[in-house]
Design brief:
By secondary structure, the chain is mainly α. The chain is built from five helices and no strands. It is rod-shaped, with a radius of gyration of 72 Å.
Length: 363
């Protein structure tokens, strides 16, 4: 973008007035030397425009001296003056002719030398004016470059202020991240402690579970043996029941026979006499049968109670298995959560290290 003019028309007019008063020529370098700013070509172009517009007077008018009054001389002084003037005129003519002859050659030579010096001086002045114009242009270029540098410095200062603000924000974010990392480290420490406690609890649970497994295996073996015994007892019971049924049938038969015998004894005491020994044997056999039946019932009740106890123990073992499975699931969840927190912590640490590296490289 083009720069605004660093001078005004009044500066040009004042410079022209000063140069005219000093009797100096008006050119590019003279205008620049008086004004002290602007490019010589631009100054002279502005001067030419003002000259075309009639705003600049090329020559200043000289002051007019007032006319003095003249008085006539007295006659005697006038005659004397005429004689003296005639003599002086004659002498002047002689001197003039002699001087003219002497000086004419010198004057011509001096004029030639002066012309040559004038030409040389003009060339030197033109060269100096060109050099001055170049110098003034260089100064203006330097001023423009300086203004651009000043603008760049202002932009850099703004950028520096913005960067400082960004660095401050990054430092604040870094402090927040450090606080967050400290909090995460605390959480990780707490989780590590909790994990250790859970691992200890899990070890105890595993120990208890191993003991329970051993007890369960022993109970299962005992249960297997008891099942075998129960099966055997059930078979024995079934056999006993069959025997009881058979004995009951026999007992009923015996009772019927006894009734019949009693009736026969009552009705036919005289004809059919039963010995006391046979009656005692029958009663003994009935008593033995009843005793065997009572023992079988007692053993059957014991086996039923033992089976109930085994079922209760089996239920407790199933509950222990469910509890162990729940604890195992909780432990797996906690381990997954710990792994996730460790990954987040690693990612945050990497991010913070990357941010610190970026800040270090920018600094």
């Amino acid at each position: 973008m083009a720069r605004d003019r660093s001078f005004t028309d009044n500066d040009i007019l004042d410079a022209v007035r000063q140069l005219n008063e000093a009797g100096r020529n008006i050119n590019k370098t003279s205008l620049r030397s008086v004004i002290g700013k602007g490019r010589p070509a631009t100054l002279y172009s502005a001067y030419t425009e003002l000259l075309e517009q009639g705003k600049v007077e090329q020559e200043l008018s000289l002051p007019v001296e007032p006319e003095s009054k003249t008085h006539e001389l007295p006659p005697e002084i006038s005659d004397m003056a005429a004689v003296v003037l005639s003599d002086i005129e004659a002498m002047i003519h002689r001197v003039n002719d002699a001087a003219h002859n002497i000086v004419e050659g010198r004057l011509n030579k001096a004029i030639e030398n002066a012309k040559a010096q004038s030409i040389e001086a003009g060339e030197r002045v033109e060269s100096i004016e060109q050099e001055l114009e170049v110098a003034y242009n260089t100064i203006e270029d330097s001023n423009e470059a300086l203004e651009q540098k000043d603008s760049k410095i202002i932009n850099l200062e703004r950028s520096e202020s913005s960067l400082q603000s960004q660095v401050q924000n990054l430092n604040n974010k870094l402090m927040e991240r450090e606080d967050r990392i400290s909090g995460l480290n605390t959480e990780v420490s707490q989780l590590s402690s909790l994990t250790k406690n859970l691992e200890d609890s899990l070890g105890q649970i595993k120990t208890e579970l191993a003991a329970k497994h051993a007890s369960l295996e022993a109970a299962e073996r005992e249960n297997s043996e008891l099942n075998k015994k129960i099966n055997k007892l059930e078979k024995d019971l079934s056999s006993s029941e069959k025997t009881v049924a058979k004995v009951q049938g026999q007992l009923e038969v015996k009772e019927n026979q006894l009734v019949d015998l009693k009736q026969e004894l009552v009705d036919e005491k005289s004809q059919h006499q039963m010995t006391v020994a046979e009656l005692s044997d029958a009663n003994t056999e009935i008593s033995n049968t009843n005793q065997s039946l009572a023992e079988a019932n007692t053993r059957l009740n014991e086996l039923v109670n033992k089976n109930v106890n085994l079922e209760n123990e089996n239920t407790q073992l199933l509950q222990t298995k469910e509890k162990l499975l729940s604890v195992t699931n909780d432990n797996n969840s906690l381990e997954a959560e710990v792994e996730r927190l460790k990954k987040n912590l690693t990612a945050e640490q990497a991010r913070v290290e990357k941010l610190v590296g970026k800040l270090t490289s920018d600094g």
